[in-house]
């Protein structure tokens, strides 16, 4: 159900709109010269590794159409993998293969596809079908995340990820995106994934939404979100804040996954993070960003910024 909220009420709630985000934060704090570090997923991975930030394994890249046939044959030695456009956005063009059945490949949804369908998907990626601005692109093949079993009941047919908005090294707001059958196993809120707002101080769930409506449990697994507390929360906040320092971008969204063996890993970065995180938290970004600016002006110390964010933005601090 769509509900009308007056501009005055949105102002009171501190809701950040797209224009204010674009002009006051993305335009002001994100130098365009630094965009390739986040828009190019391969460059993001290489930069993260040089800074000691863990990322999923890279199996290979495909740059030219004539490489596709040999590349698909090479995939036979990997039981599971993920294909991504290097310059994709919004989860478009990501193909997750979790296993094999004879000559066919099994997607995370359970559907089976052929090698020819994989070749066609790769060809579309290289032609720019899924990339920013429709430019010719490259494809990268990554290892499948062996995600933390604690989170298994909170996602269905796909890997849940944690999005953290960080501003000038200060973690501001976080949510976990939980895949559903409706979202085809992808952690994409627009396709029907559940967004779970997370307390910045503890990583506990504060509320959950699907299609803009509050929900109490996962629609496919029945798991109650009230019991969710994301593990390794200290490391997740540290990683998100480190990505601001790594990229030189002041306002970013860091997408993090929890691997069973490695722990938190950087999945990708976004220089233009969406605003749906406010819906998942039922809280506005604008008030928090104002406080985060004061924190960043108060100290340059990495750990102090995180500690102050946890103190100011925790659910019991009256900040959201």
Structure overview:
- It is a single chain.
- By secondary structure, this protein is α+β, with helices and mostly antiparallel strands.
- Helices cover 31% and strands 23% of the residues.
- A hairpin with a 2-residue loop joins β3 (95-101) and β4.
- It is globular.
- It starts with 6 loop residues before the first helix and ends in a 7-residue tail after the last helix.
- The mean pLDDT is 91.
Quick recap of the structure?
With about 325 residues, the chain is α+β, with helices and mostly antiparallel strands.
DSSP strand tally: 13
The succession of helices and strands, N to C, reads HHHHEHEEEEHEEEEEEHEEHHH
CATH topology of the largest domain: D-amino Acid Aminotransferase, Chain A, domain 1
Which range best describes the helical content: under 10%, 10-25%, 25-40%, 40-55%, 55-70% or over 70%?
A: 25-40%
| First-last Cα distance | 23 Å
What does the radius of gyration come to?
A: 19 Å
| Category by helix and strand content | alpha+beta
Q: What does the overall shape look like?
A: globular
Low-pLDDT regions: none
**How large is the count of helical segments?**
10
Strand proportion: 15-25%
The neighbouring-strand order within the major sheet is 11-10-9-8-7-12-13
Taking all residues together, what is the mean pLDDT?
91
Q: What is the level 1 CATH name of the largest domain?
A: Alpha Beta
How many domains? The number is 2
CATH homology superfamily of the largest domain: ATP-grasp fold, B domain
Describe the biggest sheet? Answer: 7 strands, antiparallel
The CATH architecture of the largest domain would be: 2-Layer Sandwich
